[in-house]
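Sorry to interrupt, but I need a hand with the structure work. Please put the record directly below this note.
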Amino acid sequence: MRIVGIETEYGVSAPGSELGPEVLSELVIRALAPVVPDRVTVAAAKLGPEDLAANRVLWNGARAYVDHAHPEYSSPETASPSQLVAYDLAGDRLFADAAKAVTDATGVEVRVYRNTTDGKGSSYGRHENHLVSRDTGWQKIVDVMTGFLVARVPLVGAGRVGIGQRGERPGYQISQRADFLVTPIGLQTTHDRPILNTRDEPHADPRRWRRLHVITGDPAFNEVQTWLTVGSASLVLAATEAGAVVPVRWANPVLALQSFSHDTTMATTAETVDGRRLTCLDGMELYLEAVEAFVANAGEAWGDGTGQLLAAWRQLLDDLRSEPSATADRLDWVAKLRLLDGLRSRAACGWDDHRLAALDLLWADLERSPAHGLAARGASRRVVTDDQIDSATTEPPPDTRAWLRGTLVRRFPDDVASASWDDLLIRRRGGRLQHLPMPDPLGYSRASVPAAASCPDLDALISSLGR
């Protein structure tokens, strides 16, 4: 099993209202339920600066908070890409419900968007998190993953009207994020954004793990796209740890990434340091072949659903080469392009027409997106069921430490003073506070702490853990 998670910063607005994004974000976070340490009733009054500190841990083990004037959902730790899809989409349902609660309480219509740019020069994050063995050399990760993150543009893009950070040139591109990535490697996530982020906060035993914080992707509504985005990266990392990948080294990674994004035909080539010219699909093919060989040589399926994921990745790549429009049932950027081209044809307009920008924004709307209609008509492939997504809004993953975190937050909200990824602060009898460190992401699962689901007394439960 590999531990994976996703952070999503949502766009938020209230057209016609004086409420700014900081206050709107705070209201949305405070409207989330269930939360710890207590439920907060949404107030119609404006919040003051002293109120802008919402940080919630949810029953499903996820965290929700305000980050740089955006409401953010960080999924719980999951042990497979398919499981992560359910918890990622659970975040959408929770935030859509929270926005509706704020609208009902304030009379101000609040809209929440699943995208990474406002089209006016701002970009916000959609971050994958992959736990990687500390034994794997950092330079090896840099070499392999930089090339992969550039090549995978067609796999992770959600589509965007406009070229350039402010959309100053008319057109349509594959990735919403590409034009905001301006350096190959670095620490920043809000400016001078890199292709490969060097942040190393494992929220786990740092002697064993590092966290690869990937900031290059877009949030997609399509379940297959998210599944393949996370699953392919996870498999490339596994093959990297085993020394089974020969990296693609682009001569100019930033230029290659942006050029690939700007060409929806995927025919653009970029130079590698060894003098080859490859398309993004050529680069992705090399990584897929390396992973296929790695899994075959391992003698057994690596992780949950690996064979199925590899077959889906191979089919998607083949379809992108032969008939890109056939991937509209798996990729947001292709499905969105089909809708936009239909509007362009009917209206006889160019890419600078404001109606196209409006449809682009509508696609990202959590409640009103045309992506929901496509899914309802069976035009989008599924990875999980609606019941699984519903369950993921309140039930934590059973096979990671998120299970104990979410279970205790649900069952003993008054006794959990605070919760973070790798630590719980528990109120013991007499009011004494005690830390419960959880450095192992695979520890404290349902199998290892079954009493947490039924023990009537938290103090006795903690004592049974030897604490």
Q: What stands out?
A: Residues 1-114 form a domain with the Alpha-Beta Plaits fold (CATH 3.30.70). Confidence is low (pLDDT under 50) at residues 36-53. The longest helix spans residues 81-106. The longest strand covers residues 126-133.
